[in-house]
Specification:
This is Urease accessory protein UreD. Belongs to the UreD family. The chain contains one helix and 18 strands. By secondary structure, the chain is mostly beta strands. The protein has one domain. Strands 3, 4, 6, 7, 9, 10, 12, 15, 16, 17 and 18 form an eleven-stranded mixed beta sheet that branches. 40% of the residues are buried.
Length: 261
């Protein structure tokens, strides 16, 4: 039987330089836990899978809202594995992520990888609404198939709006039924892990980092706004994470230098 569930996070600045979590509402297989943050200024929430999900036919969603001045980081305890449904009529699963970041607020969305298992069908959407002075760090990683198996069908869409205006709208599709060429040399080129890192920071109003390659299969692209997007391919999840972690370290250093200038 399919599951429909929504988990909700609301972070609020407490007026003393910290962030409280008045709403931490788990839903179905999505259990939310407040965990220790290495930065005292940030609240930290970890998504813990309470059961196998998403399965075919499931409708899952996570809503995370950082109110004005709040600072919150959201991660997950383990990879999310998209699996086939229990029957032939289960249909595709959907997983919706809805992010909202207020004025002067900061949200880090850093889940573990999404694994598209053979036979699964998943439509994933991520929507972010940002105030003009909001800051967002967002990482998405997909692994196409478990060890030794082909990928399932996976479609993803990332939409970001800042101050009511479009900043990024990107859609990808992999696996059976996806447009031809998704596994060719012009797209994946034999790689099984694909990911992206988005940093939206008002500090980049003073100068967005220049476009550049980050190794043989990763690139940094400035966006039409105070934001940069890093897109990367790798042979596996470990190598992909190493590329994106290094990119984030460099970008955070550059944005800090601009804020302190």
């Amino acid at each position: 039987m399919s599951v429909t569930a929504t988990a909700r996070i609301r972070a609020v600045a407490d007026g003393r330089g910290a962030t409280s979590l008045p709403v931490l509402e788990s839903g179905g297989p999505l259990a939310l836990r407040r965990t220790r943050s290495p930065d005292a200024a940030f609240a930290r929430v970890t998504v813990v899978g309470a059961m196998s999900a998403p399965l075919g036919g499931d409708r899952l969603a996570v809503e995370a809202r950082a109110e004005d001045g709040a600072r919150v980081s959201v991660d997950s305890a383990a990879a999310t594995v998209a699996l086939p449904g229990a029957g032939p009529d289960a249909g595709p699963a959907s997983y919706d992520v809805r992010l909202s970041v207020g004025e002067g607020a900061e949200l880090h969305w850093l889940p573990e990888q999404l694994v598209s298992a053979y036979g699964s069908e998943l439509d994933m959407t991520t929507r972010a609404e940002l105030a003009s002075t909001a800051r967002l760090v967002l990482r998405e990683e997909q692994v196409l198939g478990r060890q030794g198996e082909s990928t399932g069908r996976l479609s993803t869409r990332l939409t970001v709006r800042r101050a009511g205006r479009p900043l990024l709208d990107q859609q990808t599709a992999y696996g059976p039924g996806a447009p031809g060429g998704w596994d060719g040399s012009a797209v994946l080129g034999g790689h099984r892990a694909v990911g992206q890192l988005l940093l939206v920071d008002p500090a980049f109003e003073g100068g967005v980092p220049a476009p550049r390659l980050l190794g043989p299969t990763a690139a940094l692209t400035p966006l039409a706004g105070p934001a940069v997007l890093v897109t990367a391919l790798a042979a596996d999840a470990r190598l992909l994470r190493a590329v994106l972690d290094e990119a984030l370290k460099v970008l955070l250093k550059e944005s800090k230098a601009l804020r302190n200038a």
